[in-house]
Amino acid sequence: MDPRLKTRILKETAQLRSIADEWRGLYGRCLGVSPFQRPEWVISWAETFSPERIRVIEVRSGNMLVGLAPFLIYPRGEGRVLAFMAGGISDYLDLLVDPQWECEVVLAIFQAIQQLGGWTTLDLTDVSASSVLHRSARAQLAMSHDQCSSLLLPTTREKFLQHLSKRQRANLRQAQSRLHNAGGASVEVAKPETLTECLEDLFRLHASRWVRAGLPGVLADEKVKTFHRKASPELLTRGILRLYRLRSKNQTLAVLYALFGESTVFCYLQGYDPEFAALSPGTYLMFAAMEDAILSGMKKFDLLRGEEGYKKHWRAQAEATYRITLTNRMEPLSSHSAHTEAA
To answer: Strand 241-248 and strand 79-84: pairing?
Structure first.
């Protein structure tokens, strides 16, 4: 390990809270990261789900935090898995590494992993092709894991409409006309004083949709809802969360939960009232969120994982995510291989 770097293992949520400001600073210096790596997201997850074996690897150069690997250990059969925290509810996961120290910090993290006891398998999922982990790991370690979909955003609403198919433009016109004929509708963005109400509307509408499909949905777990109630106020205050709500005659027709990164909007959750499906409230609200993203100067709209049919209507392009697995008998990444893969 580079002698200028020091590692420490954090095992308590209180320790994570104590470095939250530094964590935010490191996040702000990193490139290609997602809000799923922010302390507001990960720490809220840890405080809600209370994992028994938190193992967060912290890397410092002097007093400066230059790397963070938010891991935990959990049992799987007879083995013990070292994995990222906040898995399951996060569509992208990765290390946080200061770009000026990328190769050195990744090496330090992998060396700390080797020295870390109590695990039999390293299983890192939801790794994007542009992530620091994917760049730094040897190619044979990365296996296909899942698929996300995204679209690049033009600079104006008009150019975006031109990008869409004639059918989708017709769908948008029809949705607008139907909502107008039904008495009109308006889109509002949650504020601190309306956040709880908007969030509960999302939970209700999301559940209603999935119950009709005979499936539980991701929000069926009360702890997941508790997590969002805990994380959302700070995410909203810091301008990361935008919760859009479509209303008509004092009734909520649809809600969309989006996370804003540096240049990408992550469309995380949606819910609409099945009783108003004929009005296409989901399509209308999605377009409103995309318009807002364009006006905010965002470059990309990420629809995240899943192969739902509606994503094709927006001409979203598939992007693979990866899984990296190793046994406890792994060899460390050599300095040469790390520099080669990062180049």
So the answer is: unpaired
320 three-state secondary structure: strand
Max Cα distance, the chain (Å): 69
What's residue 138's pLDDT?
Answer: 57
* DSSP for residue 266: E
28, 68: one domain: yes
Under 8 Å between Cβ of 109 and 94: no
Dihedral of alpha carbons 286, 291, 293, 294, sign: positive
- Is 269 part of a structural domain of the chain? yes
Residues 194 and 326 occupy one common structural domain: no
Query: What distance lies between CA 171 and its chain's CA centroid?
Result: 28
Query: In this structure, are residues 54 and 19 in contact, taking their beta carbons and an 8 Å threshold?
Result: no
**Span of 41-55, 184-198, 327-341 with lowest mean pLDDT:** 327-341
pLDDT digits (tens, 9 = 90+) for 290-310: 999 999 999 999 999 987 878
**Could you tell me the CATH number of the domain that includes residue 194?**
3.40.630.30
Element housing 287 (H / E): helix 281-295
